[in-house]
Design a protein that fits this description.
With 144 residues, the chain is mainly alpha-helical. The protein has helices at residues 25-33, 36-45, 52-58, 64-76, 98-132, 134-143, and strands at 50-51, 80-85, 91-96. It has 6 helices and 3 strands.
Length: 144
């Protein structure tokens, strides 16, 4: 493909797909799986099949309701499979589907980026919070 035959967005403008809510990959896919709960659940499932209670124990700050809701959404999206086994008590196992497994490498890259930049981001947040705290803003108004 020659450079002249490829269409490029106008300078300082994203490609048109990002302006169409029904076509945008960020809104339609990444907006959900990029959130903290789906990411944590998918990460845990990347190590193997887990029962609901195992996931709940592995992610202690998620509520039971949110875990159930997120698993259902991930199942609906085709990223997680749910296998209900009859018995006493009944057993439900969750695992990654091939589609879910194909996302893990990308998720690991995001996690690695987060780990590398966590301290830096926390320092920047603290500086921002110090600059924008009500006391700092009032002092600047008095000085200026």
């Amino acid at each position: 493909m020659t450079r002249s035959s490829k269409s490029y967005p106008a300078p300082n403008k994203a490609p048109d797909i990002f302006y169409a809510p029904d076509l945008c990959p960020i809104r339609g896919v990444l907006g959900h799986i990029g959130q903290k709960w789906p990411s944590l659940i998918l990460c845990h499932l990347s190590f193997g099949t887990h029962r609901f209670s195992e996931l709940r124990g592995a992610i202690p700050d998620i509520s039971q309701r949110m875990l159930a809701k997120t698993l259902k959404t991930l199942e609906r999206d085709g990223l997680v499979s749910r296998d209900a086994c009859p018995g006493m008590p009944p057993r439900v196992d969750y695992s990654l589907t091939p589609l879910g497994d194909s996302y893990i490498e990308h998720l690991q890259n995001l996690m690695n980026w987060g780990a590398r930049n966590k301290a830096r981001i926390e320092t920047i947040r603290q500086a921002y919070d110090a600059e924008t705290s009500p006391g700092t803003i009032l002092q600047k108004k008095k000085i200026g």
